[in-house]
Design brief:
The protein is of the alpha/beta class. It has 7 helices and 13 strands. The strands form 3 sheets. A 6-stranded mixed β-sheet has the order 10-9-8-11-13-12, sandwiched between helices. A 5-stranded mixed β-barrel has the order 1-2-3-5-4. α2 packs across α7. The longest helix has 17 residues.
Length: 288
């Protein structure tokens, strides 16, 4: 039998594909290794069930996007989870995620958790001004989770963010039947323990969602970002691009730059601009 399905997860050389209302355990064809192609969660695939319990992924369909970290494919939404406190928000990490999402044609959404600890207003203001959809969720009572759940319908979504921000708790509030493992923040270290050990997709709200292993930083060398296209990954820059005095302006407080005055006037968020400058410098270092 031949099935069309979606890879939910991969462990130890086995892949688990949802197809025909069931989950099929498969191996991948050796040909993929020769082609330098690794099946990823989120991949749309063709599976051949051999009838002797040896099921094989015959084909990996064309991807519209993919990430190396976390290893996923065909993403519609990147839900960037950030907590108001414990741990405090790291705007540079968040902005790296939004830039990476933009460069791959993925819609980024900001989910603010732990609103019972501190007000989400400052974070919400930064990203609402930048044009992102933002949601505030109280992980204690689940308040606000239903609004985010509506956005997941018929989408393939990845939940990501720093360790300890409450990704698994948020997913449990969105879809209680998942019962994902959670962990408390370490008082000694001030950060959470990893509770998610591999990428795994779950069926939620008529779509697929994944809780990904937490990480403290993203390496933008894993992307197609460079100094020439970084400016286009900050949507709030768009009205000002082309208005700089000099062609090829890097927007690093250059003379005659149209971006810098917009930052001073509060039209572009200062933390967003600072993230842009840091990313530009990081990418520039990679060129040498």
């Amino acid at each position: 039998m031949v099935y069309q399905g979606v890879i939910l997860k991969g462990i130890g050389g086995f892949y688990y594909v949802e197809a025909a209302d069931k989950v099929i355990e498969c191996r991948a064809r050796g040909l993929f290794r020769k082609q330098g192609l690794t099946p990823l969660p989120g991949d749309k695939v063709t599976v051949r069930a051999q009838g002797d319990d040896t099921n094989v992924i015959e084909e990996i369909h064309e991807r519209k996007n993919s990430f190396l970290r976390p290893p996923v494919a065909n993403i519609d939404l990147l839900i960037i989870v950030v907590s108001t406190d414990e741990p405090k928000p790291n705007y540079y990490v968040i902005d790296k995620m939004t830039a990476l999402a933009s460069s791959k044609g993925i819609e980024a959404v900001i989910a603010i958790t732990k609103t019972d600890l501190s007000s989400p207003q400052e974070i919400k203001s930064v990203y609402s001004k930048a044009g992102y959809k933002t949601f505030s969720i109280n992980n204690v009572d689940g308040g606000g989770a239903c609004e985010l759940r509506k956005l997941l319908s018929n989408k393939v979504s990845v939940f990501t963010g720093n360790t300890g921000v409450g990704k698994s708790s948020l997913l449990n509030n969105i879809s209680p039947e998942l019962r994902l493992e959670t962990a408390q923040i370490s008082e000694k270290l001030g950060r959470g323990r990893h509770t998610t050990r591999q990428v795994e997709f779950f069926s939620v709200a008529g779509g697929y969602v994944a809780d990904t292993p937490g990480f403290a930083a993203i390496d933008i060398r894993d992307s197609d970002l460079d100094c020439s296209n970084l400016q286009f990954q900050f949507a709030e820059f768009e009205p000002y691009l082309g208005n700089c005095r000099f062609t090829g302006c890097a927007h690093l407080k250059d003379k005659g730059c149209a971006i810098t005055p917009a930052v001073e006037k509060g039209e572009i968020g200062r933390t967003r601009y600072e993230s842009y400058m840091l990313m530009y410098e990081e990418l520039q270092e990679e060129m040498w």
